[in-house]
Known about the structure:
It is a single chain. By secondary structure, the chain is α/β, with parallel strands linked by helices. It has helices at residues 12-26, 38-43, 59-68, 84-96, 124-135, 160-169, 174-179, 204-216, 231-237, 254-267, 271-275, 292-300, 303-318, and strands at residues 3-8, 30-34, 51-55, 72-75, 111-117, 141-145, 181-183, 188-190, 222-226, 243-249, 277-282. A seven-stranded mixed beta sheet has the order 7-8-6-9-5-10-11, with helices on both faces. The protein has a four-stranded parallel beta sheet with strand order 2-1-3-4, covered by helices on one side. Strand 1 (3-8), helix 1 (12-26) and strand 2 form a beta-alpha-beta unit. Helix 6 (160-169) crosses helix 8. The two termini are 25 Å apart. 28% of the residues are buried.
Amino acid sequence: MKIKLAICLDEDIYQERFVKCLMKHYSKEYEFHIFSSMEELQEEKSAYYDVYILSESDSYKSQWAEEKALRTLWLKEEDKYQEVYRIMELVEIMLSNQGIRPVVQGRELLKVIGVYSLTSPALQFPYATILSDILGEHRKVILLDLQQFSGFAKRGELGMEDAVSMAIAQNFIRGRMQDIIGHTPNWDYIFPFKNSNYLLEGNKDVYESLVRYLEQELGYDTVVINFGEGSMTFSEMKDICHQIFLLCPKGNGCNWREQTWKEELERKGEQDVLHRIQRMEIPSVSCTDMEWDRLVESWKWGSVGDLLRKVINEEKAIG
């Protein structure tokens, strides 16, 4: 069962923003019951909630909660200025002290999808963002950009370096992870590497640990990985991918390189990888032909996006 939260805060505008954020990031683990006043909350005499989140504004509320022996998190005025996830960390601590752990109900099975190109690595990242955006319409998606000089804007002071460091140490800190995750309307992303030397720090076990944390603790059901140009990140990560989108631009010699690469995988006894490869033909585009944003929009609503949606829908039908 989901954890039931009762929420009754003094300031309507803050409560609306607070609940909207909770619905976006915690709706799979928690069930939210919103009350506009303490009177309304008290009327539900038969209802039970695991945690009550209330404003610490007067002694009347405190006395009522104590009499009922309610598990209550009191929000002070200054608490409104901190990140919502820090408030939810307090809820989780309160629950764990009682031996209660949020369990995700109805979560999609985790899916890890890689994006790779043998001939046009510059087109990988635009494609990965389109894939993430389309998948994000129905799933909770996070993008990991492991490609050096992908063109991804490096916003934020922390990024994949921090995520890899925590995975190596097997010591993930939720607040720290939240700080290095950026958001778009349909998908999230970890800020990319600023120091590409950190790419050498990771191996299969490290990235598996990171992906497992993203699923189990942060609730992501889809991880999209944009592989680097070199074979290192692909060779380390390919085994944890359920599907690999191999991008093949038209008319640039992709076929013979693809064939040679697949033959090499066969010689290494990696036939299982071949079964997970989805060949995706894309238009051949020069990096100077069009700006990145225009390219993404053109592909998303053109033949590239149509093909992606078809492949994704077919997979849904198969189950």
